[in-house]
């Protein structure tokens, strides 16, 4: 794409870069879908298949939010009570067990190690904000030799919006000077609500930029195929100021 800005150059214009993990740094989206489907399989194939459609559409939520949605919307049970806590302990525990062996073996996304190294060598503060639990995220990054490149890894014990706010507070950075690199609508929502720029990468995500970057909240967002440092960045999106956001998938 002649004249397009390079991904590395666009990111380096910011004071802080935050990466999502799954589908951005690690090729693990389908792995996680398979594991959560297996963990919930006692509830029946048809019900679980329906939930997995929502799981893909809301990928990027915290683990607790995904299980709460299944409990509330597919089992028709109210959330936030002792029964849900027992449900969460059992089935999220089964999910974690499945991931314990398989997740560390997930490969890096194409060019992830190269881009992270290039940015870190330029002394640009890098963070990870992910729906994956912190220790799981740290282990997979450590296994690929990337953990030391990040100032911190903030996992899904809290919603992504809260994690982004935490990054800004820790780094004393205004939201306008930071960018989130993500692969999902939930990532876009979190960035928009906190005020960060948003860079979508599409190669490993469940949906392309035409599905993710819609509505007024996508204004200014950019997209690229993957993390190749000299790969072209497309955008920014320019949606009409009056465009209504139809997102109804919950808190990222």
UniProtKB/TrEMBL annotation:
GO molecular function, one term: phosphoglycolate phosphatase activity
Keywords carried by this UniProt record: Hydrolase
InterPro entries: HAD-like_hydrolase_sf, HAD-like_sf, HAD_2, HAD_sf, PGP-like_dom2
SUPFAM superfamilies recorded: HAD-like
Region (Disordered): 233-252
GO BP annotations listed: DNA repair
One GO term describing the cellular component: cytosol
Superkingdom field: Bacteria
Protein name: HAD family hydrolase
């Amino acid at each position: 794409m002649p004249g397009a800005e390079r991904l590395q150059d666009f990111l380096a214009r910011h004071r802080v870069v935050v990466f999502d993990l799954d589908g951005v740094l690690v090729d693990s989206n389908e792995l996680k879908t398979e594991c959560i489907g297996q963990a919930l399989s006692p509830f029946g194939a048809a019900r679980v298949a329906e939930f997995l459609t929502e799981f893909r559409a809301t990928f990027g939520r915290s683990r607790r939010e995904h299980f709460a949605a299944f409990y509330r919307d597919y089992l028709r049970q109210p959330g936030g009570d002792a029964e849900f806590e027992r449900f969460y302990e059992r089935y999220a525990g089964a999910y974690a067990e499945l991931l314990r062996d398989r997740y560390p073996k997930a490969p890096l996304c194409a060019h992830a190690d190269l881009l992270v190294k290039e940015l870190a060598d330029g002394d640009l503060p890098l963070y990870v904000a992910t729906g994956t639990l912190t220790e799981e995220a740290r282990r997979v990054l450590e296994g690929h030799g990337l953990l030391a490149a990040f100032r911190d890894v903030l996992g899904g014990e809290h919603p992504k919006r809260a994690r982004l706010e935490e990054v800004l507070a820790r780094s004393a950075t205004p939201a306008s000077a930071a960018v989130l690199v993500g692969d999902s609508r939930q990532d876009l929502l979190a960035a928009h609500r906190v005020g960060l720029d948003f860079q979508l990468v599409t190669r490993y995500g469940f949906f392309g930029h035409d599905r993710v970057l819609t509505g007024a909240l996508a204004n200014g967002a950019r997209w690229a195929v993957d993390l190749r440092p000299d790969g072209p960045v497309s955008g920014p999106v320019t949606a009409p100021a009056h465009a209504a956001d139809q997102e109804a998938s919950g808190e990222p």
